[in-house]
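Reply to dn_fold:

You asked what the input looked like. This is it:
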Amino acid sequence: TATDELDEAFYQISPVGSTFAQISSDLGAVTTSGKPTRNLAETLEELGLRYLSNSTPDGDGVADWSDSPIGYSCTEIHIVVITREAPAYDDQVSGTSTSVPISPDVTCAGGVSPSSPDTDCLYDSVVAYLYNTDWSSLTDDQTAIVHTIGVGYAGSSIADQVFDNASLNTGGEGTYTMIGSGDEIVPSLLSIFSEVEAGTYTRSTPVI
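and this is what came back:
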């Protein structure tokens, strides 16, 4: 996510197709901002508009952010979001990704309270937008499925409601897992990856 509440971009680490050595090096260079920005919806929207919708890979064997990770027809991109608590400073989402109403819809105002207008709980709407949009010019549909892993907050909280609703608006294809601590992140990721690798989804690419 972004390092500043006024920034809606996503923080690029390694594009899909990077080598283990490159990913390890890139992760080693990541620093935390120390700010409470959790612009999850903004990040997902930007990921779709500025990465998934890029032109198909150029075949040069080099992973870069100008190539879409979608290289084949009927590809499903699986995005795994790991987060603590509800989205925050997450209100710079374009009308495109929220123009189609979702049902049900969890709404909340700034400060993350369960009321309208919907300014900070747009995550479920953007997840539905990614799921219902064809992200490539290739034949058939190339969609994006978002899985959410929430860490260390109470059940029935706003975070729990909006993340669960995001899953509901993908027909359950995008999973939602609430865990108690960071120790459970790796098992949760492995569970998602094992379903992808087992062929639960065809031509799938996980993106964290």
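The beta strands are 76-83, 143-151, 176-179, 204-207.
Hope that clears it up.
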